[in-house]
Please model this.
Amino acid sequence: MAQIIVKNLRKDFGNFTAVKSSSFTIEDGEFFMLLGPSGCGKTTTLRMIAGLELPTEGEVYIDGEEVSGLRASERDIAFVFQMFALYPHMNVRQNISYPLKSQGMPKAQIKARVAEVAGILGISDLLNKPVSGLSGGDRQRVALGRAIVREPKAFMMDEPLGALDAEFRGHMSEELRALHDQMGATTVYVTHDQLEAMQMGDKIVVMNQGSVEQFGVPQEIYDWPASLFVADFIGSPSMNFLHFNGSVAEGDSHIQLDGQRFDIPALLEGASGDLVFGVRPEHVSLDDESRYRGGVIATEYLGTTQIITIESPNGVLKARIPATQTVEEGESVGLNFSSLNITLFDKSTGAALLSQANKGVLDHG
Ligand code: ATP
Model:
């Protein structure tokens, strides 16, 4: 299996730059997510790693060897696409065997390997069935079987579950992750679904308009978004943003919102200018003692929690609170924020002021 290094990768199509100087490292055995909205350059990045697209600039290394100029067939990588690209005239066994047959592997060895892969995927009883009659999930399992059967250095998956309905998609994503844990193969997975990326990925690269916005483990990206874009894109509902123009004095670690004092992480002292105050809905609480008040404009019951939408003096925000708490639309409520979970952003650049570099210093409760 393989470590993959992407260094200053750039791709121009004519005078349009689809990927701008991207760099990240995918460690051996990682399940690695390329996440971002439609058109941000995820597929182009994946295709450059795989050798289906040549970079305009930059390098790709697989296991320490530069492969930037090598063709896809020379990189020992397998693909799984959204559309289950199976051979319709072949049965399941023939579809899975195909890559091994092309390599000239002896028949007995192919038989044993296909049986092993079918066992891993739970499709042993389908081996002699035509692929035309299979369900979407089974077709995807066969496609996976064809990809894993020849034990490549790495897997490239481009929205492989995109064609499945929501419920089955959740089930298949668990299966795929379990399969990965069993095989330990380096996997690069493209998705625009932040929840899928958070649930499945060991690490995530968040892309926006051709650039890497942030790169890290899911919790780091959720807790310490590097930019307004990441904070907004990750999480559902996304982070609340309250705009205020102010400053935090040196040696001080609180801000004033509408006359109410709020503690903030000590590392934010000295921040000033046109700032954006960011706090996730689960870190907003209702507090009768607080003079910072807002009017409830909507409530959404979700079983164990509820999402309350509140018009505050600095803008509309959402709070995720226990479903057992009674709140009426139109009611005025006092608001409080979990001080260690507050993030400040520079409004003009969108960058988080509390960078990832110093996050370890905090007890992030
Ligand atoms: P999606 O999820 O919609 O596929 P993506 O993040 O994977 O989005 P890409 O497919 O990498 O995005 O495309 C990035 C940008 O590059 C898009 O604006 C797309 O139109 C453009 N693009 C991709 N391939 C080509 C091409 N061969 N020629 C010209 N433009 C291209």
